TrEMBL record:
It comes from Microbacterium memoriense. InterPro entries: Formyl_transf_N (IPR002376), Formyl_transf_N_sf (IPR036477), GART (IPR004607). Catalyzes the transfer of a formyl group from 10-formyltetrahydrofolate to 5-phospho-ribosyl-glycinamide (GAR), producing 5-phospho-ribosyl-N-formylglycinamide (FGAR) and tetrahydrofolate. The keyword Transferase applies. This is Phosphoribosylglycinamide formyltransferase. One of its GO terms (molecular function) is phosphoribosylglycinamide formyltransferase activity. It catalyses: N(1)-(5-phospho-beta-D-ribosyl)glycinamide + (6R)-10-formyltetrahydrofolate = N(2)-formyl-N(1)-(5-phospho-beta-D-ribosyl)glycinamide + (6S)-5,6,7,8-tetrahydrofolate + H(+).
């Protein structure tokens, strides 16, 4: 059984979907802990499923490296097979990435390598494209530059706002994430073959 740690910053909608999937008896993975870099509403989802949580508040550390060292200590306690970034709105220090990659994955609301970074949905609208998408990647030390594990196109409508487009991308992200975790847990997707 694949053990998974999930790191969040916000409401945890992807986390909730993954918890529900992992609650199914035939799902080949289970979430063992949820961590965050700030007080996150998504902790409520973990608590609802009886999953332990930990908090490593970024602002309490003098720099990103020190924060990363504490985050790494918490992850090592649980020794998960896979770490999922689920709306963690902070770049991980290279030391954390190096410790976990390629067993470190993230979702992104764009069809990478198109529109990387924190504003993928806004950037797609600003570019006037007719379609964008969602991606699941292996995290590397760049910004959304790691190997792509799964992705799917999402059409951009003429009346889309950043909010409406993002709301249509989110379910695709969730589905792709659940499928990737399922494939890893079932042995159908070997992360060791992806180098970062």
């Amino acid at each position: 059984m694949l053990t998974v740690a999930v790191l969040i910053s916000g409401t945890g909608s992807n986390l909730r979907a993954l918890l529900e999937a992992a609650d199914e008896p035939d799902f080949p993975a289970r979430i063992v802990v949820v961590g965050a870099d700030r007080e996150a509403d998504g902790f409520a989802h973990a608590e609802a499923f009886g999953i332990p949580t930990f908090l490593v508040p970024f602002e309490q550390f003098e720099n990103r490296a020190a924060w990363g060292e504490e985050l790494q200590r918490h992850l090592e306690v649980w020794s998960p097979d896979l770490v999922v970034l689920s709306g963690l709105m902070r770049l991980l220090p290279a030391g954390v990435v190096d410790a976990w990659a390629p067993r470190l994955i993230n979702t992104h609301p764009a069809y990478l390598p198109e529109f990387p970074g924190a504003h993928g949905v806004r950037d797609a609208l600003a570019a006037g494209v007719s379609e964008t998408g969602a991606s699941v990647i292996v995290v590397d030390t760049g910004v959304d530059t790691g190997p792509i594990l799964a992705q799917e196109r999402v059409a951009v409508r003429g009346d889309d706002t950043e909010h409406t487009l993002h709301e249509r991308i989110k379910p695709v992200e969730r589905r792709l994430l659940i499928d990737v975790v399922r494939r890893i847990g079932a042995g159908d997707l070997d992360l060791a073959s992806f180098t970062t």
